[in-house]
Here is the input.
Amino acid sequence: METKQIKIEAFPLGPLQTNAYLVSLPEENRGFVIDPGMNPQPLLKRIEGMEIEAIVLTHAHFDHIGGVDAVRRLKGCPVYLHDAEADWLTNPKRNGSVMWPELGGPITTDPAEYALDDGQKLKLLGLVFQVLHTPGHSPGSVSLLYGNHLFGGDVLFRLSVGRTDLPGGDQQDLLDSIHDKLLKLPDETIVYPGHGSRTTIGYEREHNPYL
Here is the structure.
């Protein structure tokens, strides 16, 4: 299957330096946003003159959704989120924003327009992205795969894995997700995580102390 060359830009946003990603086709000046976090000004500035087709959320923790409203208002684009976290956008208790008031207070936004599901082929930018349900860090965590690019949210990090001590987290589910879904991908698959620098499946298979 032919894969187009996509451009991927990372924007570490907010107090937790959460990676928002802009995935685009530069020659067509259109793209979509993954996990627009808090204090999204650098991202908003970058997409000002672009067509943005969607916001895709790997999960709905507060640090990944703080910029949803701003991007949605600016671009009038729909939001995609797994149904297991359907009510998290409207519920600050669920999305965790009330747990750390010093980081900015309660965050709420309107519900997502579309649900993500395991194995779903998500068509964006005229391309097909594969949705993998990878629960553990949170019940509705998903990873998004295109060619050898994997947007993994807070499931797998460089030399680490996602925390499971937040509501809905489950250590065994997380490890199952990583072993059954992510580590089955080719070694050269590039992982774009929710925090920190990117890595590859091969590097983590070889060096990650949690696996």
Remarks:
- The chain has a mean pLDDT of 96.
- Helices lie at 41-47, 62-65, 68-75, 171-182, 201-207.
